[in-house]
Amino acid sequence: MKTAEEKHVYTVSELTRNIRVILERNFGTVWIEGEISNFTKHQSGHMYFSIRDAESVLSCVFFRRVNANLKFEIKNGMHVLCFGKISVYDKRGQYQLYVEKIEPKGAGALQIAFEQLKEKLRKEGLFEKSRKKPIPYLPQRIGVITSPTGAAIRDILNVTKRRFSNVEVILNPVRVQGDLAKEEIVEAIDLFNILRNVDVIILGRGGGSLEDLWPFNEEVVARAVYRSEIPIISAVGHEVDWTMSDFVSDFRAPTPSAAAELVIPKKEDLVRALGEFKERMKISLISRMDFLNERLNTLKNRYVLREPLNIITQYEQEIDDLMEGLRLKAGFVVKLRKESLNTLAGKLDVLSPLGILKRGYSITMMKKDNKIIKDANVLKKQDRIKTKLSKGEVISKIEEINKT
Fold first, then answer.
1. For residue 205, is it within any domain?
2. For residue 353, is it within any domain?
């Protein structure tokens, strides 16, 4: 038997395990309220954070297997309610809360998730009006993505039959509620864009709670709507319901019926409009014909059309007058040019050497080379010279030279 002096000595591991058993037995699962701090998401997908109040801090771990369906993003400073099991992490000897569920305090988790995603997509520009595509006025085929058994497709078909039965409606059936709905909606949008067999897409369902409408708030659905090259009208829920697809789509309709009325004009309205256009074209054509007929009569009564030969004779006479004037002017110009030429010829004759010879002068040259003699000093006796007169020439022999 043990004596009073004997003591039980615990190992660290043993003491830690005992404390863990006590905590788990006395507390089990609990709800704890506090503020998020020191939040970290590990690459494994596990989340580590603390919740605190004014006086104390409690460590928490939120494993990937239970946080995979978390709708909102956990951030430091967020006030939350955490549900989980109190236990001890043996290696650190640290007691902590193993979180199984977390909810924002005040606004619901889905509403928080909605606002967070809305802000994210807004910053990325997915709501910009500049990238929204126009809705065709009278499409030949309308693609509808909704439940095949819901009220939305019935409403759309009723509107189509009532307004313009010639329009073809192609249904791509999908779930509109539950975890599998988002993948089916994305596949339906992508399929229409691959096939290119519709002119516009209506994405819709009837009303419901925020949780019921949640597939239309999923990020993958919003991005599928955004990348669609076919215009998309979002018609989810009732007029007061807004989903992420409403913000991203090219047009938001308050209900599926309103979406159908938007893209399907009334056939009788089109027939009436065509009748009005036809009447306006008829009136315009008659007015144009009257104008052209009046102009034709005006032209027909003009003198040039009534007496065309007289106009020709007028031009013939005018041509004769022009020719006579041209002949007289040409003769006058020739006479002036001739008189001017005679004057110039007289001046040239006066200055010409031949003219000088006619006045009794002569030109003396050496006979052998016809070089003109200007200086008697270049001559010598017995040189033969030639003298050019006004008429004829004289050949002479030098007998005497008087030099100056």
1. yes
2. no
Q: Is 74 inside any structural domain? A: yes
Residue 187: which pLDDT band, with cuts at 50, 70 and 90?
Answer: very high
Domain match, 81 and 159 both: no
Flag the least confident range among 105-109, 143-147, 193-197. Answer: 105-109
For 130, which DSSP code?
A: G
172 and 243 in a single domain? The answer is yes
Same domain assignment for residues 21 and 73? yes
DSSP 3-state of 235: strand
Q: Which domain holds residue 79?
A: 12-106
* 148/241 same-domain check: yes
Contacts of residue 228, defined as CB under 8 A and 6 or more positions apart, other chains included, come to 189, 192, 193, 201
What is the distance between the alpha carbons of residues 29 and 41, in angstroms, rounded to a whole number? 23
Residue 260 to residues 6, 147, 234, Cα–Cα distance (Å) = 88, 16, 11
pLDDT of residue 404: 64
Encode 352-364 in three state secondary structure.
Answer: CHHHHHHCCCCEE
**And the tokens for 370?**
């016809």
**Count of the separate structural domains present in the chain:** 3
Helices (H), 8-84: 12-27, 64-67
- Gyration radius (Cα) of the chain, Å: 58
d(CA 223, CA 121): 9
Which band of pLDDT confidence, cut at 50, 70 and 90, is reported for residue 2? low
Cβ 225 vs Cβ 245: under 8 Å: yes
